[in-house]
Every structure is written in C-alpha cells, then in structure tokens.
Amino acid sequence: xxxxxxxxxxxxxxxxxxxxxxxxxxxxxxxxxxxxxxxxxxxxxxxxxxxxxxxxxxxxxxxxxxxxxxxxxxxxxxxxxxxxxxxxxxxxxxxxxxxxxxxxxxxxxxxxxxxxxxxxxxxxxxxxxxxxxxxxxxxxxxxxxxxxxxxxxxxxxxxxxxxxxxxxxxxxxxxxxxxxxxxxxxxxxxxxxxxxxxxxxxxxxxxxxxxxxxxxxxxxxxxxxxxxxxxxxxxxxxxxxxxxxxxxxxxxxxxxxxxxxxxxxxxxxxxxxxxxxxxxxxxxxxxxxxxxxxxxxxxxxxxxxxxxxxxxxxxxxxxxxxxxxxxxxxxxxxxxxxxxxxxxxxxxxxxxxxxxxxxxxxxxxxxxxxxxxxxxxxxxxxxxxxxxxxxxxxxxxxxxxxxxxxxxxxxxxxxxxxxxxxxxxxxxxxxxxxxxxxxxxxxxxxxxxxxxxxxxxxxxxxxxxxxxxxxxxxxxxxxxxxxxxxxxxxxxxxxxxxxxxxxxxxxxxxxxxxxxxxxxxxxxxxxxxxxxxxxxxxxxxxxxxxxxxxxxxxxxxxxxxxxxxxxxx
RNA sequence: CGGAAUGUAGCUCAGCCUGGUAGAGUACUACGUUCGGGACGUAGGGGCCAAGGGUUCGAAUCCCUUCAUUCCGACCA
Length: 569
Hints:
single chain; alpha+beta; nine-stranded mixed sheet; 28% helix; RNA-binding; Rossmann fold; 3 domains; 17 helices; globular; five-stranded mixed sheet; BirA Bifunctional Protein, domain 2; 31 strands; YbaK protein
C-alpha cells in the first residue's frame, strides 16, 4: 500500500472527545472515525489489524475442533420469546418492526440463534460434542458507551457455542477453550491477560470466567491476591474480616447529639470505623424495603446483595426507612419490621456501636449473635485494598482491567427453554449441555494499543500489525531515492511481505511522526545519506534497535527479521 | 436514567461577559526557499457560529426549547 493513496488522515493534536490512550491514538492515527455515539467506521489500518486478530482466533478455534458459521444479525421476536429474553432484557436490546409490522431485533448475542440452528441439525448422542463459532456484528444499546473502541454499541464479536451430552464433557471442553484463549492473547501480543472468576450475569449458568487485561485505564475492578496469584471480579470477590474476640458487654444506649454518619461517630467516640455497624436501607423494584448491616469500614456490594434478594435495588428514601421502624442517621437493625441482612464482618465482630432508632442516641456493645439472633448472615462486603485473601491469608489489592473475553458454562438454560433435545444411548430424550465463549474484536484491538504504545503512537506486535514493514522514502524527488524505494517496495511484495510505502515527498519529520502513529514494527528508511554507501537504514519500532543493511541484502534481511520476530507470538 | 460541562473551518481553539460585516493555529491548494524527528515566506480556497423559537433596528454573542458530544455516577453479555 502506498501512503499517498491511503485514506487515513493523521492528526497532530489530541481529539477533544478522547481521554483513553487507545482512543486518542486510534483517532490521531487515522484508524477509526465515529459516526454516532458508540458506532465507528474502521479505516484500512484498523481493518487490517482486525483481520489479523480474526485470523489468529480462527486458527485457535479450529484447533479445538470449532466450525466457523455465520448467523444473522437481525432476528425475529419469537426466537427471543422462547428463551424468555424478549421480556427479560430491557432497553439494551434494540427492537424494531419490519414492513409487515413483525417485531424484529438486532442480535446482541446469539444463544437463541445457535440453538435454533443446532436443534434442526442434530438429534442423536452420536452427533455430540460440537462447537460452532462466528465473527458477527452485535448491537447493544448501551446506556453509556465510552473510551473509543473499548466500549461501543456496535461491534464485532467472536462468539462460540459448544454442545455436550454430559457435564464432564463440557468441563473438559471448557478447560480446552480456556487454554485456547490464553494462546490467542499471547499470539496477539498481550500475554499478560489473566483469567478470573466472574459473575455470569444475564447469561445464566453457574461457572464463568473473564479474561482481563490489567491496566489502570480499565473500567472493571479486579481483586488480586499477589501471594497466591488469584484474581476475581470485584462484583463477586470475597475477603475475610476477622475481629479480635472480646467479652460481650451490655447493650446500652449512649447520648450522641447530632452524630449521624460513621465519620462523625469516629470523631465523637474516638473509636475506629471497624468498631461501628453501618446500617443501610434499600428498596427493591418490588417495593420491599430491606435493611443491611456491614462493618463501618466496609461498603455494601450491591451486586452481591441483588443476587441474594433476587431484585434490583435502590437506596430507600427517609419515609421508607421510617416505615420499618428505624430512624435515619440513628438506625439500628434491632426491632425492625423489615427483612435484615447482616454481613459476616459484623456477625464476627464484638461490641460494635450502632444506632438506637432514636434521634440523638446510639447503642454500644452491639453483638449480632446475642442482639439479632435470627438475622440472615450473608456475604455483601465490597472488597478493598488491604483485605485478607480467603484462600491464602495474603493481602488483597484492587486493580483495574479491560475485559477482553469471557467464557461461560451455560448448562441447559437455553436448550431446555428452547426445547432442543437429543436421544441418548438408551433411547431417552435429553437436553444438551452448552458452553459459550466470547471475544470482542474491536475491544481487543484497542486493548493491545492500550498497553503497547509509547508517547508517539501504538507499537503493534508483528502478529497483528497492519503491515509488517514500512518504507519511509526520504526525499522522493531525488532519482536514486525514488528508484531504490520503488524497487525495494516491489521486491518485498514479490516475496509476500506486507509493506506500507510512504511515497509522499514530505519532510522526514512528518514521515517519521506518521510512521510512529501507524506503529508498524519494522521501518526501512531509504534516504540519500545511506544510499551513498549503498545502504538502507532499518529501525525497529519501540526499541533502540537500528542499523544499516546493503541494498541487495534488504529482502533477505526483512524476511529473516520477520521469521525471527514471529517466534515471539 | 441522575449530576456537570461543551457545541464556532477537516482538527485544536479564541471571540460571547459588555449585541454592530467570522478569527487564529494546524490541515488543504499554488509558487519559491528549505530538507534525517511534525520547516519558512507569499498568495489562495474553506463557516446556515448544533437546530428551532424569542428579544432587538441589528444576535455566534442575551432569553427559552430541543438535539448532540464528553466527563462523573446508575446500568452493563
């Protein structure tokens, strides 16, 4: 490709709307252009990177016996009614009517479609197991897209679905797929992606893992134990909160005028936050008000809590709190008319301070086992840095990550609701057991940029680079530069090397700056100075590696360099 | 869906408070001088000042409404 023909304008300045490094470089380097909120066009450099990523994933999916298929992006309502998701998924699902007024939707994921396909094709246990995958556009009408390609509404996803006759078979395949994922991320140049336990969310199913690229710019919170190398999504992570055993003292009222918050209690009593019981009220979408108690230094994990109560939660209003018998600012879980959930951190602690349900008063020496013996003891704590790892006793830290992929054990969630059955060895009908496995291609592309860049632009790993080699012809108006650059460009293409040829007659500074933004690993500089000695200069992007190569050896040098570099991936 | 900010040239922004012919830098075109890390000079082209309504002799500027974008939350396969 010649730079003079390439439609991919470069910008010197940081675009006003971009904050994230990858977003900035993808816009500045002429990779992507926004068309609407969370909807992007890809220009040729990004399209080529995407193609390389897709090729790597295809190879790894094929190695674990995947068969590539393609399902439609527009699906009829009936299919999603079968699974129940037409009603259970809200505005994130984009619905519309066709000319016959038939309800249609833009697929945000393809479990329904793949089950509809598979159930017409197989009927015997002899047909199992199998895995089908595709690269297909998804549309998710996100409340808030952001960060360039990291979080968009329309994107291409590799989604794979496996079908099994036994749980053991799924478990085995799941592990194989997990391995394939690590290989994929390594080949894409980001081997540091870690797999972590996660919440299965609306997908249903019991076991799920996320593949997180740990980086400060990530939007997910990941709890890490560096001692035992365990990772968990902050939504499901658990810590241990141990308190020193004490003798239970008498539950008694103390006067605390105008002391309402935990902070005020700390300065009023001189005791640490860990000696307080924090009492919080939520109202569910069904209108029930519930009371939850956590230790004063801990935040309520609303994700865990929603799963326990099986409802969506919002903070209760003062009126709703009063109805339960509690007094806002001086609330105590004892003697209320509503359901009460107590976190382990409080259940295991002794002699805490809590409210008295009386304006201006608190209670001291609150002990759950004695004062609230019938409360539900649950895990609803939000893990924070410094908490104790439940596996090894090490210290937990919170890091940020970008979720570049995920895998789920779906079980029979979809095969049952959509009545996909097979006949087993004994002639009995059974539901197949499913797994599903996703990778967001654009997000992966952006993630690579997020961790493989310098101040001047992305540093694409050779395995995904838009081109393998860039030729910068400095002073194209000079005869020997023009001729040599054209010859090298031609010769490299002849042997199958991917080349971007900057044939524009611009100053070297402009060419180099643009080349940095394009991030191609190997740069050849054809310029008068070295040509006088019969040499071409090379430079490796992102390193100090450079040197001079005789003109007639340049093709073999490039081929050898590529072969050697590719060994890393 | 809440809170905040911003919409002026392809891009980054000034002008708005205090109403009076639309600006700069960059990018683009032509010519000349430059030429190994975003050169310089001269001359050009490029705008429904987000949209709609109002106030006014007159609105980019003041008022109202809508829309869009970004940030912080809520939500999120």
